[in-house]
Amino acid sequence: MALSSDVSPTGRRYAPGTPTGFRLWWHRHRLTVIPYLYIAPFFILFAIFLAWPVVRSFYLSFHKQQGISTPSFIGLDNYINLLADPRFKQSLLNTTVYALGSLLLQIPLAFILAVVVNSKLVPWANAKSFYRLSYFVPLLTSAVIASLMFSILYDYNSGLINSYLMRAFGEEAKVGWVRNASVVKFSIILLLIWRFTGINSLYFVAGLQNIPKELEEAAAIDGANWWQVLFGITIPLMRPVILFVTVTAINGSYQIFAEPYLLTGGGPRDQSLSIVQYLYNTGFSYFNLGYASAIGYTLVTIIVILAILNLRFFGAFREDQ
Amino acid sequence: MTTSVQATTASAPRFSAIRIRNGALVSIANVFLLIGVLLAAIPFIYMISASFKPQNEIFTFPVQVIPKNPYLDNYTTLFGETLYLRWFLNTAIVAVGRTALSLFLCMLAGFAFAKYDFPFRRVLFVMVLASFTLPFEVVLIPLYTMMVRLGWLNTYWVLIVPFAASAFGIFLARQYALALPTELMEAARIDGSSELGIFFRIALPNLRPALAVMGIIFFQASWNDFLWPLIVLNDSTMYVINLALPTLRGPYNDQYGLVLGGAVIAVIPIIIIFFAMQRYFIEGIMAGALKG
Asked: With an 8 Å Cβ cutoff, is A54 touching chain B?
């Protein structure tokens, strides 16, 4: 006597205990179904809190929406207004200066530090690891804490930096680090150099250690001097790391917010206003949501274009990669 | 064999010519590096030192690195007269919650992407990776509106949930899970283990280093977050530390002792993680560059 569960809907007979119905289906397909169950929680949150807002923000950027009003379609007006908006242009200029500061000052400095620490100029292994470890110190702080620390160091009348300048060069040497319109951008670049040179240097050290010693030694044996080894072998082989550091630095610079917001509030006269702070002000002080979304998408466009330019510049699309 | 030996011996004198024997150059380089270390450390040391000084001594010049009479009032005021303890707990609850949720989501999904073959696997993964290039500021406006509708402003949820599905996290999780030996899973399957059993009893224990690395990344990101809390929190009892610290400056922007004391305490958890889990901390920071 077979139990009813041993007979499948098609009438075929199975040995007792063989799974049927849902259990049979599950047994056969579980390896296809389970991965979807595993990725489902991630993708549900991803869709709600990232994918949908990305689409919605794109939609809003073509609309006028003031506060909780209903969005009304205005085509490209937000983007056209943006191109003529002096405050936006100022924030774009400031942010570009921050990015250039990273590219021209901070990354070369980090590279030099890495090459020196990795070279025979630091002959002791203990010293090498001490230097590397000390590069982490600024990373332990947040952007907020770093900005608050620097706002004290930058204080005009009695901050540490001006106190030393005054002692060395007299009263006129005091610098309005956060109040002088022509200095503020540099003050912020200085803060960024303090925070990020160490980590970028660590990336470079890691890259340098991946270069086979034999290559550099062989070149040296062939009579190449130190500079020729650096530019002929080291830098070309470091291309992926340099690309990574450059793209990260540019992305970070264009997304800067906390440092100028806390140090100067964007002033004086918008001279340190960043794009993200302008987006923040537009969206959350003036509640001009459509316009703020257009600023957001302009930022996306800039970052994507710069990333592509970088990839091309460093030859990541080349056949031999 | 002989040629290579000859080559090295023959080259030894020429090679040593470019080796830097010059003690002066080594000294100069190290002095330069030590100055760099000092510059990196000064703001940090200054912060700790000033947090133990009364307001009128913070700016005295020359600076006394170790205050003659350590002054603890900044700290007692923080805990006695401000909501600092509450802010610290808020920050900790949010950081732990977000780390746990992110780890769960990313490990489970990353493991599926690494070890199972299913339709649309590549498309879905590339979609997540593509989102990685977007600056998160682009979603601020719609996400804020959504939080208002959900009634999530000034709650823990608003800081824990929206950024838990981390694209970088799933990328790292998959990268680590790829290294798991598939034979281990198959052996367990033959032994009758369920798929969930494989995940919890085989994958997770073997992925402990990945859990540590990713946990540190998520925790630090949450601990240091500023822009999102600034937008979604306006009730001071719900503040996280980063949001509260600037307000401690007071109406005249001069209560620096309080700010610095608060900052010192806020850095302590990160420093503890750094020293207790240095290897994973460094691996986490380097993960972006090396795995990318």
From this structure: yes
Q: Spell out which residues of chain A touch residue B131, defining contact as CB-CB under 8 Å.
A: 46, 50-51, 54
* Interchain CB contact of A300 with B (< 8 Å): yes
Residues of chain B with CATH 1.10.3720.10: 77-291
Per DSSP, A140 falls in state: G
**Residue B20 in contact with partner chain A when CB distance is under 8 A:** yes
Whether residue A248 and residue B288 make contact (CB cut-off 8 A), yes or no, is yes
Mean pLDDT computed over B49-78: 82
Looking at domain A77-313, its CATH architecture is Orthogonal Bundle (1.10)
CATH (residue range B77-291): 1.10.3720.10
The pLDDT tens digits of the residues spanning A59-95 come to 999 999 888 788 889 989 999 999 999 999 999 999 9
Distance CA B165, CA A41 (A): 9
Residues of chain A with CATH 1.10.3720.10: 77-313
The structure tokens 């020293």 sit at: B275
Q: Give tens-digit pLDDT for B216-255.
A: 989 999 999 999 999 999 999 999 999 999 888 876 667 8
Residues of A in contact with B50 (CB under 8 A): 152
Chain A residue closest to B135 (CA)? A300
Q: Quick one: CA dihedral B44, B50, B55, B59, positive or negative?
A: negative
- What are the percentages of helix, strand and coil residues in chain B, rounded to 5? 75, 0, 25
Alpha carbon distances (Å) from A131 to A104, A123, B30, B39: 23, 12, 10, 12
User: Which ipTM was obtained for this model?
Assistant: 0.86
